[in-house]
Amino acid sequence: MATEQTNTRAKFSKKQILSSANFKERRDLLTVLLNDDKKYSIKEVEQEIDKFMKKKVK
Predict the structure, then answer these.
(1) Would you say residue 58 lies in a domain?
(2) Residue 7 has pLDDT above 60, yes or no
(3) How remote is the C-alpha of 20 from its chain's centroid?
(4) 43 lies in which domain range?
(5) Rounded distance, CA 6 to CA 28, Å?
(6) Are 29 and 48 contacting, i.e. CB atoms less than 8 angstroms apart?
(7) 1 pLDDT exceeds 60?
(8) What pLDDT band is residue 4 in, cutting at 50, 70 and 90?
(9) Domain total for the chain?
(10) When comparing pLDDT for 5 and 31, which is higher?
């Protein structure tokens, strides 16, 4: 339980997220979506991916 709380609160840099095995399949997408100077939680990264994937194609 404590591990789950720690994971939701932890913030990671773009570089850390891109090197993570969790997001290996989405590395190209995250390179474009994430800002270099901002830190993200895992939940925030997943939300950014979902938001992008649900956009309409122009």
Answers:
(1) no
(2) no
(3) 10
(4) 2-53
(5) 27
(6) no
(7) no
(8) low
(9) 1
(10) 31
